[in-house]
Amino acid sequence: MHFSTPIFYLVSALVIIPAVLMVAMRNLIYSAIAMIACFIGVAAVFVTLNAELLAASQLLIYVGAISILILFAIMLTRRRSGAICLFFHRQSWAALPAGAALAVVLGIVLGSARFSAGSAPKNPSTANLASLLFNQYAFPFELASLVLLVAIVGAVLLAMRERRS
Amino acid sequence: MQHDVVAIVPELMLVAAALVLLLIDPFLPAKGRRGLSWLGIMACLPAAASVWLARSQQFSTFSHGIALDGFAVFFKILLLAVAALAMLLSEKHLARNGRLLGDYYALVLLATVGMMVMASAIDLATFFVGLELMALSSYLLAGFFRHQLRSIEASLKYFLTGSFASAILLFGMALLYGLTGSTNYQQISIAIGSGSLDGHVIVIAVVLLLGGFAFKVAAAPFHGWAPDVYQGAPTPAAAFLSVGPKIAAFAAIIKFFTIMLGSEQARWVPLMIVVAIATMLIGATMALLQHDLKRMLAFSSIAHVGYLLLALIAAGQSHSNFGSSAILFYLAAYAAMNMGAFGVLVFLANSARFNDSLDEMAGLARRFPGAAGVMAVLMFSLAGIPPTAGFLAKFYLFASVVDAGYAWLAVIGVLFSVVSAFYYLRVIVYMYMREPEPEVAAVMEPGGGRSWDLSLGLGLATAVVIVLGVLPAPVLNAAQDAVAKILGS
Amino acid sequence: MTPLQHYLVLSGALFSVGAWGVLARRSIIMVVMCLELMFNAVNIALVAFSNYANAGAGRGEVFVFFVLAIAAAEVAVGLAIGIAMYRLREKLDVDELDEMRG
What we know:
The structure holds 3 protein chains of 3 kinds.
Chain A: H1 5-24, H2 28-48, H3 52-76, H4 95-111, H5 126-136, H6 138-159
Helix pairs in contact in A: 1-2, 2-3
Chain B: H1 2-5, H2 9-24, H3 37-53, E1 59-61, E2 66-68, H4 70-96, H5 102-120, H6 124-142, H7 149-180, H8 185-193, H9 199-217, H10 225-232, H11 235-260, H12 265-288, H13 293-317, H14 322-351, H15 364-367, H16 369-383, H17 389-403, H18 407-433, H19 438-441, H20 452-470, H21 473-484
Helix pairs in contact in B: 2-3, 2-5, 3-4, 4-5, 4-11, 4-14, 4-20, 4-21, 5-6, 5-11, 6-7, 6-11, 7-8, 7-9, 7-10, 8-11, 9-12, 10-11, 10-13, 11-13, 11-14, 12-13, 12-18, 13-14, 13-17, 13-18, 14-16, 14-17, 14-20, 14-21, 16-18, 16-20, 17-18, 17-20
Chain C: H1 4-24, H2 28-52, H3 59-89
Helix pairs in contact in C: 1-2, 2-3
């Protein structure tokens, strides 16, 4: 599909605006919802980059699983005051200038970068991706399952309620 | 495919052992858990043997994702030794704290698998997955004593800084991929070496990679997490965490900075010099102020990372392999002496009510002459006093720095090393020449739980420290060999 | 046709917003959410590179699969640690991590 620049700006707004709102809001649940909006925006970005399979994965994993996990954590750790959390860190005065500086530097360097790539987008098919994933990158694929195993072990080790005997 | 699997036999053995540990642990009665560490240790030995048998191989497998070369052989054997030692040191301590679970050893084994992958990877994706496997296992090991606030805090701090670092590293790797169109180290190295890529983007990638790795090895200015994490984590876990991740990270750093970015030294060497000096400064001076021994050892680790970075500069600058082989030898020596030092703290914590403080070391030689003797040897080695491994490691390292034309940096390094000798020797002074304080003296009860696993581990570590100091040739030659044969260099 | 660089600027901006959040916010769950923003930013860059590349097309997308899986595992571990902390302390506050002092 051929996407034009206005669509890019639309999708970018869907990514950046919820992200900034998420960081700036005090209520954790509102922030989580902004985060979900941002993730949907990222999925839209993937669609404009001809990566439909990734867009679907993004929705499934980030919106469908990670966001739910975070919402559960927010609800399980709520204090009586609700989900409002204190905002400023002791050293947070440096964070905004640092973040802004980083954005400016990255924006300037990456925005004017010269890449040897052509500017015509390719369209790797799902078959292509599968071939790469299961042939070339088979070893990290298997290893990733161990990472997920560690996550499960961690959840049981640290978060599971212990039986009172 | 059969050819490919040979390269990962040690990893497969460790994974199998980890899975067995995880599966049988819930079915064991509480008493039946003693000796579980030996399941893990017994997996490390054949794994090391299989690596040794393959030591003359030189090929890359899994579509050039993993290399089996001299470099990988050296690091895998070193990491397996570290893992075995970590498991030897830990059982009694876990039991005394009510957390003797097979999961601990499974996490150590899985972390070691991650580290071995990090050291032998020649592809960005493989490296990243290995890195995260190590990292997540490490966060959990730090927080293993979940009922102790300091352990959970340590785990949380480690997680927050470590994940931040992973994200930064990942962005740097993404830029490397974007610039070169490949995730394979060798192809990236060729593409960057051609000099036709956008220099500014390379600089950004360098800064991001350097920043991410600096977090991971606790180099300045991102060293802040290490003292808290090593202090709060269970002491045997701290032993493992202070050594393993650094070894794996340096293996990767050597590949990233001297192979992939080898032609771009002008971009990263100046920055690295600043980082190295700051790291040595902080490590040497802050350790003097610490009264908690684990924090002192943390700052001591930071200082050692500073020296290693000096050798990295030498490796990047010169075209001989002197600097890189110095790093490998130093890592081997550092592993033995640092784990030994933490091991003595584990022994003391098992034998009495011990709060890891320097004051409690007063008069130790009278109560626990064996432990004091071991600690003395290790302190001498960390300070770099002959005839220990630490001395030879530093000597070789500073020689490589001078050889690369950075004599002034070597002088600075030696000066900091002399300063840090003070806090190592202070421990020895306390142990042998101080009377124990009456209030503190009552706390130590000699003859408490003796664990022969722990004694074996301490004995081995001390033996390595002494033997390497007197007969460095085998390991030194292995290090030189390993570096000469890195695939793709 | 939007040039590659536009996508990279978007990625850099999102990365910076995430980094700001990690450094500025006090709640641990908030920091975890901002870390996810950073990972998403890298994903955008990877897919953009993969799409526009001559050589190596498709590899970026495969790399993103790995990042997705690992980010999920990371969130799980982070929240497990956070829950364990909450049980001990009844709050999840980065500034409260002061059990150990220099």
